[in-house]
Hints:
With 262 residues, this protein is α/β, with parallel strands linked by helices. 39% of the residues lie in helices and 18% in strands.
Amino acid sequence: MHNAAFAKLGLNWRYLAFEVDPKNLRAAIEGARTMNFAGLNFTVPHKLLAMDMVDALDASAKKFGAVNTIKFEAARNGKCRAIGFNTDADAIITALDEDLKIRLRGAKVLLLGAGGAGRTAALRLAMAQVAELFLVNRTRSKAEVVAREIKKRCPSVKVSIGYPKTKIDLLLNATSLGLKPSDPSPLDETKFSLKQTRAVYDMIYRPAETRLLAAAKKSGCKTANGLGMLLYQGAKAFEIWTGKRAPVPVMRLALEKNIYDR
Ligand code: ATR
């Protein structure tokens, strides 16, 4: 999506993917800085490690405790500073708004997963002033840690562990269950019926329709997969690096073509 965006804007830039062993992350960041890269993106497990490897953290990275984007920028002393950003968290909100037209303020949300993506989603939803968050995770203790953090940082949001007994507005899957065709659904339908939610968002975008989304559609829910999240975290990173508005439709088309071969 970035290369399509660079081409659209006539920028002679390139976005390249490198596989870096976590033990070499610091060296990789220094290498990129030395070679005058404009910036970097990270994925798991580098997002947490990179927090300690930048010269400054933008408020977005401080808030969510994870860096998925670095911008290298010239400092006054002639050196180059690495600034860490988080563009994942806001992308959740933009994607939910665009794809599901959900009013998050005051909403009741069931969130599946309390790993990196789950924690970021939970915090960002709490900051968007949802009324109530239900957290479910295979490892309950991780959901409890996230719940405690939300209670501390967003005390007006009601948080509980476990499935809701009432109707909700949104079910969001932030687990990795569904990536493989053999994966079971992340939702235990003996404990919560899809009839009890208006909408379902699955952060997974490949396959385009997970088992969870197929079942949700059958139950009449509004559904969307995680492509919008991928798109908007990328669009924001593009804007941070280039200082130009991201050509979002071009980026979306590039994603659809490359991911779904459309
Ligand atoms: P990410 O950064 O993408 O969130 P992660 O931090 O490894 O990756 O989190 C993966 C999430 O998927 C976790 O919520 C994990 O549950 P645990 O905290 O219990 O590990 C969940 N997950 C992964 N495999 C799962 C499985 N087979 N059954 C249920 N949940 C699973």
